[in-house]
Amino acid sequence: MNALTALPTRKDEAWRYSAVEALKGADLDAWRVIDVPAGESYRECLTIEDSESTELRRLRVSVGEGGRCELFAVIAAGKLGRIEVEVRLAKGTHFELGGVTLGGRDTVREFVTRVIHAEPEATSNQVIRSVHWGKGTGNFLGQIDVVRDAQKTDAAQSFKGLLLEKGASVNAVPQLEIFADDVKCAHGASVGQLDETARFYMAARGLSPELSRRLLVQAFIGDAFVALDDEAERERLMGIALAKLDLHL
Amino acid sequence: MLKIDNLQAEIGGTRILNGLSLEVNAGEVHAIMGPNGAGKSTLAYVLGGRPGYEVTGGSVEFMGRDLLEMEPHERAAAGLFLGFQYPVEIPGVSNVQFLREALNAQRQVRGEEPLSGGDFLRLAKEKAGLLKLDMDMLKRHVNVGFSGGEKKRAEMVQMGILDPQFAVLDETDSGLDIDALRVVGEGINAIMRAPEKGVLLITHYQRLLDYVKPDYVHILSKGRIVKTGGPELALRLEEEGYEAVAA
Fold it and tell me: What integer is the mean pLDDT of A84-100?
């Protein structure tokens, strides 16, 4: 690779909403490779929780026939915090991604995924929840490729953004390229604010505005870790996310 | 205990309460009845401190304190419970978690020790039993997927757990079948009938009052109390209608 690889700009689709100005000095060629052998399961929990400037995690995953890969992640630090995953799914595999972004000030935190259903009968499920305040931005760019022979593919993508303050924003870009005809692909995206009716109800039971917000955010991001079948890990990830919220609000 | 004096309130610039005065002493149950649009729910929300309900005049004193100066959660901690006509669904938050956090938040304000998980569950089980609500319902998310009747019973379980000094119950009887009405009525008596407690019962119908006998019945019309009497007033209303009785 040329050491002088040009930095991406916002004209690149995968960097469209990113903080490209924060990329200077970042090692953009550092892709980590994960090979999940046929029939095996792999799970990893990733967190970006204490970087001040820029932190990129780039994973290139391939899942062998009948295998399973589960990734769960919290991005709660960095001027730019970005987790990029490219997954190639063989026959009868499953890929699960549960991700949460949180952030305020002028930070950008994002998931960029490309899930390639390269063979038939693979399933994938991605659940991203983004909670932002200040001038913070959360992004989910999710590409799904279903190749011509990948019949019986079942791919799902769900994104929800929760904006705690005016000035924060989220962007969701689902991108589905489907070349097989017997497939199921679902994607949904929504953006909202805290439910003030619920907050008054909670206040009427004695919860302060801070406590009701915390409970509602906890419920909101909990969706991302429903598929994580390890209570201790689930609580650890929730703890990291909520600590970030407590610190800034 | 609760002293409302010449209360005026509006929503979005529209005057709803027009100089409402009412005093409830400890040990008393008062019923407020009135036609649609009289301001019954507005009164409940103003007492609870709901944002958007603007008090433009008058005063409310609750156990010697200025209620209107307090934030909604402070009112709860001071012992005021607002039973909602339409209990709110909170997806993702279980009843057990919600109520334990609420109870402990109230206890903290009052300078009491938090209740442990075990003690809380025992308390919740006892109160759920009182209202004949399956304990499994309390493990589910707050009001999500509950029927109308279940929501109202869950509301009373919440009241039992939080054990308030004073309850404002906004049409707690609506949406209940006959059996549930009896259970809820008996629940209100068990939780709130005490010499040091008070209840303001807002209702359309006399039937809840068969179970929860009020000491006073008030008729609310156009944002003020137009008539006050004993339980017999509710019976007359049922027979003759608001227009005849309040005229």
Answer: 98
Packing angle of the helix pair B148-162, B95-109 (nearest 10 deg): 30
What pLDDT is attached to residue A1? 44
Backbone angles phi, psi at B100, to 5 degrees: -70, -45
Q: Give dist(CA A169, CA A181) in Å, integer.
A: 36
Whether the CB-CB separation of A224 and A47 falls below 8 Å is answered with no
SS3 content of chain A, % helix, strand, coil (to 5): 20, 45, 35
Report the candidate in A211, A199, A206, A202 with the shortest Cα–Cα distance to residue B78.
Answer: A206
The B residues from 59 to 98 touching A (CB cutoff 8 Å) are 71-73, 75-77, 81-82, 84, 87-93, 97-98
Q: Collect all residues with Cβ–Cβ distance below 8 Å to B230 and sequence separation of at least 6.
A: B215, B216, B217
Q: How far apart are CA A208 and CA B55, in angstroms?
A: 21
Cβ atoms of residues B73 and A207 within 8 Å:
yes
d(CA A133, CA A213): 13
Give the lowest-confidence range in A61-65, A154-158, A215-219, B33-37.
Answer: B33-37
| Contact indicator for B159, B79 with CB cutoff of 8 Å | no
The torsion angles phi and psi of A12, rounded to 5 degrees, stand at -75, 130
Is pLDDT of B64 > 80?
yes
pTM: 0.91
Give CA–CA dist B224/B22, Å, rounded. 10
| Residue B97 CB contacts under 8 Å (≥ 6 apart), including other chains | A215
DSSP letters, B21-48, are: EEEE-TT-EEEEE--TTSSHHHHHHHHH
Q: Are B31 and B205 in contact (CB under 8 A)?
A: no
Structural domains of chain B sorted by starting position, each given as residue range(s) with its CATH number in brackets? 2-246 (3.40.50.300)
Beta-carbon contacts of residue A26 (< 8 Å; ≥ 6 apart)? A54, A56
Partner A, chain B 94-153, Cβ-Cβ below 8 Å: 97-99, 101-103, 105-106, 109
Q: Please report which helix (H) or strand (E) contains residue B80, including its range.
A: strand B80-83
Residue A52 — pLDDT band, cuts 50, 70, 90? confident
The DSSP code sequence of B177-191 is -HHHHHHHHHHHHHH
Interface A–B counts its CB contacts (< 8 A) at 74
Nearest to A205 among B49, B92, B158 (CB): B158
Which single residue is written with the structure tokens 């000094």?
A: B165
CA separation, residue B107 to residues B113, B118, B162, B191 (Å): 7, 16, 10, 18
